[in-house]
Amino acid sequence: MKTVIIFDHPYTSTASENVPHQRSFLAAIYKQVITQLKAENSEVDLIDLHADHFDPVMSAEDLSNWRRGVPINAQVEDYQNRLLDADQIILMFPIWWEVMPAMMKGFLDKVYAKGCLYQAGSMQTKLVRQPKIKVITTMGTPSWIYRWVIGAPLLKALFRGTFLKTKLFHFKWYSFSQVEKKSLAQRQRLIQGFKL
């Protein structure tokens, strides 16, 4: 099985160690995910958006290519080809202001593009392997407030508005909330106990 991980955090996927102001709980979870996938003999392909210097901004030229169903640039085309070969796609990012950061949004805008990864009109995905979509997030907002007061906008945008719309039905969301309020030992237990 081939798993493509799209990782979005400014400190990159390498920030898993407990170094103040250069650490990411998300990167520590990534490290645990990699360990699990390797134990399952899964092939893992990492797209680390910040390490790759991905540009999330859609320029006028980019939009012209997008509308014609042409890959925006060589990096985007490479990402698209890697996704076409995936049995499982894992998106990893922090939730900022209740939704995904700009880098992940730009990735979806530019990479999951009509004519390239889904058919215009029918909205049918071109990801013929029907990959499992898994989303792993961290956020400061308490889970119950995010779901019941704010209305889980991420689920609406990603599951309903993107993947379900393009007929990708295998979707699962793993959310870690308020990890900054937990002790180091509590965070370590969360990481060690995490299973996809």
Automatic annotation (TrEMBL):
Cited Gene3D superfamilies: 3.40.50.360
Protein's UniProt keywords contain ATP-binding: no
InterPro entries listed in its UniProt record: Flavodoxin_fold, Flavoprotein-like_sf, NAD(P)H_dehydrogenase_qn
Species per Swiss-Prot/TrEMBL record: Secundilactobacillus silagincola
Membership in a protein family: Belongs to the NAD(P)H dehydrogenase (quinone) family.
Keywords: Oxidoreductase
GO molecular function: NAD(P)H dehydrogenase (quinone) activity
Domain Flavodoxin-like fold, residue spans: 1-172
Pfam families the record matches: Flavodoxin_2
GN (gene name): mdaB_2
Domain of life: Bacteria
An annotated GO cellular component: cytosol
Protein name: NADPH-quinone reductase
